[in-house]
Amino acid sequence: MDPVLDWEAPQDDGRRLRDETCAGGIQCWGTTAFWHVTRPDVKLRAFFIGSSPAATEEAESVRRTIAWIAVSTVIGLAGVGPAAAQSGQTPGLMPPHRAELSFFGGGSWTDSREVLVGTDPGNLDIDDSGFWGIAADFNVRPGTGQAEILYSRQDSKLRFESPLSPAENQTVDMAVEYLQFGGLGGVVRRNVYTFASFTLGATRFSFDDASIDDEWKFSALFGFGAKLYVNEKFGLRAQARFPFTFISGGGSVACGNFGCFTTVGGEGVFQFDLGGGAFVMF
Questions:
Q1: What is the reported pLDDT for 162?
Q2: What are the pLDDT digits (tens) for 246-264?
Q3: What are residue 87's phi and psi, to 5 degrees?
Q4: Which residues contact 249 (CB under 8 A, 6 or more apart)?
Q5: What class is the 62-281 domain?
Q6: Quick one: pLDDT at residue 181?
Q7: What is the pLDDT, as a whole number, of residue 268?
Q8: Does position 207 have pLDDT exceeding 70, yes or no?
Q9: What sign does the dihedral 225-230-231-237 (CA atoms) show?
Q10: Tell me, what's the pLDDT at 69?
Q11: Mean of the pLDDT values across residues 162-187?
Q12: Secondary structure class of 205 (helix, strand, coil)
């Protein structure tokens, strides 16, 4: 891409590291998706936004991985019931009921993202913290399949840290909310239902600072876990989930009077949460 200033911009080959000295003595700072260029005699900064072969390959790899997980999960949800029947397994002891209402909680971990605030590059991260949620599950295939509607919320802090402009560092209280629709598929053995889950829906990033706008993004949750049916009305559940919120390179995570946190490269925000809870049956 053509440089903003009057010297030749370094080529982004996807392999350069931070603080590398480029051609002509220019100090460069960058990743596979953008460059920050300075010269000792020019007090200006220029960003070159683009997509290198390495960044494109990385994005394609993420898309392929997500597609593979989604297809595998859907196939598992659809096929686990007939497979169990053909294998001659003895039906489990899931109490007769139509629906379950679950209350759960646990801990959540988030992968950081590289962003720009105006022309300041840095890392944006959501602090690891606890979450809580509620889910309604409906039996659609007795003993093997359930439809699920869920809501979960994580109260945390959003942190922006810039290695080049520490004065621009920010911390703000926020919440990550998921509203999802999908299903569970699994097998009941004795009084334990082991399952895999897949849901689609929306992620909401909301902020305590009224000057920062809330953001809604498309998301998917993959997970697995187990339910223990204690008696005819009460049960316990444990689960691990992998939420993924889709935010393509150039998309915003949040906008306010400071500008926008604009993502650089990548396809979204990965989270991992581990938790458990209890449910009642109807």
A1: 82
A2: 886 556 666 766 667 666 5
A3: -80, -5
A4: 33, 51, 55, 59, 263, 264, 265, 266, 267
A5: mainly beta
A6: 98
A7: 82
A8: yes
A9: negative
A10: 53
A11: 89
A12: strand
Taking the C-alpha atoms of residue 268 and residue 188, their distance in angstroms, rounded to an integer, is 35
3-state secondary structure of 57: helix
Cα separation of 257 and 30, whole Å? 26
Q: Which residue has the tokens 């053909």?
A: 86
d(CA 7, CA 215): 39
Sign, CA dihedral 248-130-161-170, equals positive
Concatenated DSSP letters of 91-144: P--PPS-SEEEEEEEEEEEE--EEEEETTEEEEEEEPPEEEEEEEEEEEEETTT
Secondary structure of residue 257 in the 3-state scheme? coil
Structure token digits, residue 103: 């209350």
Q: 207 Cβ partners below 8 Å, 6+ apart? A: 158, 172, 173, 174, 175, 213, 214, 254, 256
CB 276 within 8 A of CB 234: no
Residue-wise pLDDT tens digits, 214-240 = 889 999 999 999 999 999 999 999 999
How far is 18 from 29, CA to CA, in rounded Å? 5
Residues contacting 192, CB < 8 A, separation 6+: 92, 226, 227, 228, 229
Instruction: Show me where the domains of the chain are located.
Output: 1-50, 62-281
Nearest CA among 277, 111, 92 for reference residue 186: 92
Is residue 111 within 8 A of residue 93, CB to CB? The reply is no
Segment 65-121, tens digit of pLDDT: 555 555 554 454 444 444 444 433 334 567 889 999 999 999 999 988 777 776 678
Coil vs helix vs strand at 271? strand
